[in-house]
Amino acid sequence: MGTATMRAVRLHAFGGPENLVYEEVARPVPGPGEVLVRVHAAGVNPPDRYARRGFRDFPAELRPHWTPPLILGSDISGVVTALGPDVTEWQPGDEVFGLVNFPGRASGYAEYAVSPAAHLAPKPATLGHAEAAAVPMAGLTAYQFVFTHLRGRTGSTVLINGAAGGVGHFAAQLVRVAGAKEVIAVASGRHEEFLLGLGVDRFVDYTRTPAEEAVRDADLLIDTVGGPDAHRLLATVRRGGRIAPVFLGDYHRERAAELGIALNDTMWQVRSSGSDLAELAALLDSGQVRVHIDSVFPLRDAAAAHARADRGHLQGKIVLSVEGGPTGG
Predict the structure, then answer these.
(1) 222: number of CA atoms within 13 Å, CB side?
(2) Which of 103, 150, 231, 248 has its CA 20 to 30 A from that of 27?
(3) Stated pTM of the model
(4) Which helix (DSSP H) or strand (DSSP E) does residue 309 occupy?
(5) Any idea which architecture 5-135+291-321 has in CATH?
(6) What CATH number labels 139-263?
(7) Whole-number Å distance between alpha carbons of 78 and 127
(8) Closest to 203 (Cα-Cα) out of 219, 220, 189, 223
């Protein structure tokens, strides 16, 4: 009997989206503490693109040493099909979703993926697989950022810079869950209706009016953009307020101290957690939090999905739909 196979997208060389190839590969086998998931949808995330480019965005000393060919993708939604030894919390047929093996290597751009059992949660009953696959990394980043990194201390007025993206649109909703009274969203004008529909109180179109001119006295700035010009946002925060960067930026630490603004700039990174994801799933099922999909591509068109991501200005998340049935035998 031959080795079981599946269709997957593999990266054969670092570089552009064209290096992502849809092909037949060996099907993985779950080990101790792992489950095999028949993937119905997979999320596309910034770390997938960093890996595709060989982590050239990272300082040399921080670059993981990965060697192609690679299957990318850490966000999956699907159905458990097989259990490794010592797995008791899942059964074949269970619908699950998860951020798998992050930080680290995962293989979600495929018909089947292996995941540690502890990295999965029951798929929200109110979501389809495409919507569920859009949640794990972005949703957990926002959830853990607000409730672990910030410990839910948001203050009354929260400003979200880059509010329309994957992390931003979750953060804009979760700070309200944490107790914020006013949420101000910064994004380009085409996202205004979307963000107001998520329940933000005020929208700032940065293409018309810079946030530093439009906002004053925020208790907390959550900045999902960062970058060398991030210090311009000091003007938006009150004395005694706080800046919480999701990504690295130059906030002029000395000037922030002079203005009495606390700067949460310690390195922080989302981590796989089935238990945290289950709590986020409850918020999704209750309607307190919603997920938005920018676009859906068939798995075979992962290169086109990455090209879309490279163009930026996303509204929510990009998802790969894993079409067709199992292959091989």
Answers:
(1) 33
(2) 103
(3) 0.92
(4) helix 302-311
(5) Alpha-Beta Complex (3.90)
(6) 3.40.50.720
(7) 12
(8) 189
